[in-house]
Structures are given as structure tokens and as C-alpha cells.
Amino acid sequence: MKNISSVLEYHDRTKHRPHAYAASLGYMDWATQPDPYRRYHGAPLISLIHSEVTPPYHLLFQKDALPIAPLCIESLSMLLRYSLGLAAIKSHGGSSWALRCNASSGNLQPTECYIIAPAIKGLSEGSTLSHYAPREHALELLHTYDETLKEGSFLIALSSVIWREEWKYGERCWRYCQLDAGHAYQSIKIAGRMLGWECEILPSDTEEIGHLCGLDQYHRFHPHEIESPDMLIRIGKSNTSTLPITPSLPYRANTLSPAHHEWPILERIEKATQGIYPLPPPLHPTRDVPNPSKSAIDVVLKRRSAQMMDGSGITLEQFRTLLNASLFCTHASDVHFILFVHRVEGLEKGLYTYLRTSDDLETLKHAMDENFSWKDLGKGLYLLRSGDFRGAAQMVSCNQEIAKEGAFSFGMLCNFSSSLETHGAIGYKNLYHQCGAIGQMLYLEATSLGLSATGIGCFLDDEFHALLGLRDQQYQSLYHFTIGRAIVDTRITTLKPY
Ligand SMILES: Cc1cc2nc3c(=O)[nH]c(=O)nc-3n(C[C@H](O)[C@H](O)[C@H](O)COP(=O)(O)O)c2cc1C
What pLDDT shows up at residue 152? Predict the structure, then answer.
């Protein structure tokens, strides 16, 4: 119960309100900007390979369409390059910055990735623990185990350096770290599909994940830059290997900032949300195979967040394809969409809901404004109220115009109290991971359709809930999103990252 009250306290306290945003520094302290790249001093660095041949994007969603690649340096390189690797270097006015395949709030990139694998042809003769270094596209070899891990699958652990987001966003940052972890998971799942590999999140104890990766060896980290374990992912077929024991590691983590700011509530929410990672029941409906499209590499590398939208519309087919694509995140069964539809051909402007599972229809009807029309448009889509919601979309999105100028924008409304009741406090973390995964999927799907998207972490929580007539915390919106056509800033140049 104590952990649940910590979640409720954190969630309420970090809501943005019209005249009081969640607590943060309120300015950019450039002198303490964190290094986006973790490195372990002295750890052997093994270069990975660059392959530019990937299958067509649409085949990633066709069961058994692609052969299962063996685990070797080439396949692991491809998995990491097209999930968490650099996608582009942007430059403008004398400064340049790297963007990655996985979207991240403020591009602060809190998510770190560890690989626990049996012998890998071309890389190691024994079973190893390594850390992915995206700038170098290389693995830092942290440990070679005496024991031999079973072949046929390997593990990826994701963790978050909360400080990276805390530096800019203060108390609300923990939410963004979790959304980013969800984006990273989905990036891995998609890149895995290029290799015919299946990804599955395991019901692991977060403490065990920390132990496995040496993250609980706190003396190796600056005290304000420790990493919080997020999830453990199995790639490949299920086998019964138990987790290996990681001994004390000799490599110290680099220090990311010369000084830090303290937001004590972050430690409390992180502590409260530890435990066995929950696995909500998978969604029943699955996504349709999309129309033939570009090569997967063109989608994952060209995915970019729109900073401005041009105010043009999209077709109903594109709209339906985007909604349907979200069903590929079968593990994200606690999330529904509340949509502000501005410009979709053949659909009147208005407020809609897309129920990703019909299970919640009656409870949602009961929870929301009783005057909503609930006009059934098929396949989970309902019109709640017609009208021009462009101003409302911009207002709830912290006044960001992208929410108004996209073809549509939406909030991800989650089964908040039932998730906490079923899974305990860690259910809160899991809900953000579900939303982040959907976000990454929709970024990619929009890119494949020649459209653009932007995740919106900055929104006015209760203004949005009030618009829906929600009176309590049964459902809460945890992530917002907009999709449309981007105006590209031609002053910014793009270079290849490697
Ligand atoms: C969780 C999350 C929240 C975000 N929130 C916003 C936002 O409120 N406004 C915005 O313009 N961009 C937002 N973004 C977009 C990021 O700024 C963008 O992903 C980052 O700068 C990297 O650029 P890229 O997506 O083109 O790789 C968000 C992204 C994520 C993943």
C-alpha cells in the first residue's frame, strides 16, 4: 500500500497544470548538461558491423515471412544498429547533434542497453555480458562468464540513467524515462523482426536485472548517475537457462555531468516501482499486414519527430492503417486512444475514441461524459462528439501547435487504477512502457506512409481528463501524440552518423 501511495503522490504531483507546471529548474543549466553516452573505463571495445541490407518494412509484420537469422556478429550488429544506433547527425549554426533510431524525450537518451548472450560467432567464444555503445556502434565487453549459456536465445536488459532527463525536466522526468524505455523496447522488437527474431519481455525481478548487469555495484557509478533497471527481454526461442551470476566488475562508469540538481521524489518513485515485471494479457486483435512499402532501413533511419506540421490532411485509409498498426504492440493492452481528428478525409472533425480492445467499452462509457454520442464507426472507432477540437488539442498539449496542425492528435488513456490494483506499484512503470512502445510503432508506421509524427510528453493532464468528463483516477492519460505532415527545416543539414 505504501508503494501505491508513493505512485499516487508522484503521479498527482507531476501533473502539468495550466498555471503550474511540474517542478523543474525552469532554465537550461548548460554547464551540467549530461553526456548522452555511457562508457565503462578500460572495458575492451569490440566494433560491430554495418550492414545496409534490410528486408521490406511490410514483411516485418507477416508471420514467418523472413528466415530466422543465426546469432552471429552480423545479426547482433544489425539488431543494435537499427534499434538503438545513431540514425543521423544534424547540424545548424555551428552546432551538431546526433539523433537515434529510438525517439527520446528532449533527445536526452536515458536508456542504456546490456546484452547477455551465449558464444557469438565472430565475437566471443564464451558467454558474455556487454554494454552497447551507440556512438561507436560497438560493444563494451564487461564480463565473460565461466558457465555456458544455452544457445538459441539471448537477453537484452534495458536501464535508465534518470539524471539525463532530470537535468532538463525535473520531477516529471521519471515519466519520460519510462516512455523512452518503451520506445527503446519497440525499436528492438522491430529490428528483431528484420532478422526473423521474436522478442518477449520476461517477468523478471528488477532487482535481479540490476544484479545481472552490475548496476547494483554502486561504487562503479557517480551516486547521482546510477542506472535503474527497466526490463529484461528475451530474443529468440524460449529456453530454460537460469540467469548467470555476474561478479564484481572492474570497470567504472564515466561521469556524465560535473554537478547535479536534486529532486528527491525521483528516488522515492523509482524505489516504489521495483519488483516483478508485470505481463498484462496480450491483445486479441492483431495488426493486418500493411501494403508493400520501403525497405525497413528507410523507415527506421528516416523516422524523425516533426517540429512543425503543415496543416494538411490524410486519407481515411492512412488513418485506419495507423490505428491498426498500434495493435502490433500486443503487450500494450491497457491503452486506448482519445483522438482529436482535425483533417482526415471522409471523417467529420471531432473527438473520437479508438478502443484497442473492446473489453473496456462499458466501463469507459460509464466513466466518461454521459452526453458523448458513442457512434460506432467499426473496428474499435467511436465518434464521441463532432466539432473543431484544434484549439483544445493545442491547449492540452502545453500550447504546442503541432497538436493542432497535425491531421490528428491523441492522448493514450490507460487503465490506471486497475493496473495498480492488479500489478502493484510497478504497474505504473509498465503503463508508460506500453505507451512508449505504441509511440515508437506509430512513428515508424507514419514514416512508412510518408507522414510524420511527434511524441508529446508535455500535456496538461487534468485539463484533458476534464474534457472527457473523467471524474476520478480510474483512467489516466500518460502520453500524447500527433501525426500529420512535417514542415522540414531546410536550414538544418543531415549527415550520415557512421
Ligand atoms: C516520451 C517523449 C516525449 C516527447 N515530448 C515532446 C514534446 O512534448 N514536444 C515535442 O516537440 N517533442 C517531443 N518529443 C520528441 C523528441 O523531442 C524527439 O524524439 C527528440 O528530439 C529526438 O528526435 P527524433 O525523434 O527526430 O529522433 C518527445 C519524444 C518522446 C519519446
Answer: 87
The amino acid that residue 60 corresponds to is: L
Q: Is the shortest distance between the CB of 335 and ligand 1 below 6 Å?
A: no
**What's the gap in Å between 103 CA and the centre of ligand 1?**
6
Nearest CA residue ID for atom 31, ligand 1? 104
Q: What is the distance in A from the centroid of ligand 1 to the CA of 161?
A: 17
317 CA → ligand 1 middle, Å: 26
CATH class, domain 22-272, is alpha beta
Query: What digits encode the pLDDT tens for the residues 97-116?
Result: 999 999 999 999 999 999 99
Q: Establish whether residue 180 lines the binding site of ligand 1, counting it when its CB lies within 6 angstroms of any ligand atom.
A: yes
Domain boundaries, the chain: 22-272, 296-484
Find the farthest-apart pair of alpha carbons in the chain and give their distance in angstroms, rounded.
Answer: 65
In the three-class reduction of DSSP (H, G, I as helix; E, B as strand; rest coil), residue 224 is classed as coil
pLDDT band at residue 469, thresholds of 50, 70 and 90? very high
Q: What is the mean pLDDT of residues 334-357?
A: 97
- In CATH terms, 296-484 corresponds, of 2.60.40.10, 3.40.50.11010, 3.40.109.10, 3.40.630.10, to 3.40.109.10
pLDDT band at 240 (very low <50, low <70, confident <90, very high): low
Indicate if ligand 1 lies below 6 Å from the C-beta of 380.
no
Q: Who's near 1: CB < 8 A, 6+ residues apart?
A: none
Angle, to 10 degrees, between the axis of helix 162-169 and the axis of helix 265-272?
Answer: 140
In tens, the pLDDT along 10-19 reads: 999 999 999 9
